[in-house]
Amino acid sequence: MSTYTEEKRLTAPDIRSRKGGLPIVMLTSYHAHTARIVDRHCDVILVGDSLGMVMHGFETTIPVTLDMMILQGHAVMRGSRRALVVIDMPFGSYEASKEQAFLSAARVMKETGCGAIKVEGGQRMSETIAFLVERGIPVMGHVGLTPQSINAIGGFKAQGRDPADWERIEADARAVADAGAFAVVLEAVAEPLAARITGEIAIPTIGIGASPACDGQVLVLEDMLGLSPRVPKFVKRFTDLGPSIDAAVEAYATEVRARTFPGSAHVYAMKKKTT
Ligand code: KIV
């Protein structure tokens, strides 16, 4: 008799059912090894298109391609077992038509085995979200600051500081919920507005620089670890790994230059001992 019991992965409906309940913990990851750690503590792992900036050093998420998302999505699926893995649809892969969105999203889901995808945009994306959901693709929405529209917005700016904008942002969140999304990210949305939207819509809100009243929170892993050179003001650094990595690399370089680092001779000696 086998005693091996496979842990069941969380699903989009599991996350949907957490509205108003236990807060949803979400972090980004783009690699198998960090996914393994994040998986132990989080409900949702987002393979965000922020990987364009974090992994590839781009200034924005605009250059990210579907192939890049699929490659890193694979890695995260291999590294995780329990969390729901959500993969971002990159700029240009879903906005032209609902058919284009379906073909791109279906490719992501077939090739990675992830449990859901995320798209940016509120009212303008509601028809597409409904089309995807009706065809079996769980969708997470993303409103407020939508970084893929950075060239139109004119910068990474907080949204809803002027109450005159509240109605539009609220209508965006409502449209995403009504279209059938299972959750929605509220990015850089003014605190009272994010709290109001959370109380108003039927699906969980996941805040990033929004409000502690949201049903869950998300951060970019490298930002909260102190590994990103520039981070938004709202990011809390839970540790500062940059200097420790710098010190370790410096120590290694010093040992190599002083010829005190064992290198392959060490490995060779170990191999000899075991044969
Ligand atoms: O790409 C990303 O990491 C994101 C989060 C900031 C929500 O979309």
Labels describing this entry:
TIM Barrel, single chain, 43% helix, 275 residues, globular, 2 domains, 12 helices, binds 3-methyl-2-oxobutanoic acid, alpha/beta
Any overview of this molecule?
The chain has 275 residues and is α/β, with parallel strands linked by helices. The protein folds into two domains: 12-239, Alpha-Beta Barrel (TIM Barrel), CATH 3.20.20.60; 242-275, no CATH class. The protein has twelve helices and eight strands. It has helices at residues 12-16, 32-41, 51-54, 66-79, 98-112, 126-134, 150-153, 166-178, 191-200, 221-224, 241-257, 263-274, and strands spanning 24-28, 44-47, 84-88, 116-118, 139-144, 183-187, 205-208, 216-219. An eight-stranded parallel β-barrel has the order 1-2-3-4-5-6-7-8, surrounded by six helices. Helix 6 links the parallel strand 4 (116-118) and strand 5 (139-144). Helix 2 (32-41) packs across helix 4, helix 4 (66-79) packs parallel to helix 5 and helix 5 (98-112) packs across helix 6 (126-134). The longest helix is centred in the last third of the chain and has 17 residues, at 241-257. 3-methyl-2-oxobutanoic acid binds at residues 28, 46, 48-50, 88, 185, 187, 208, 218, 220.
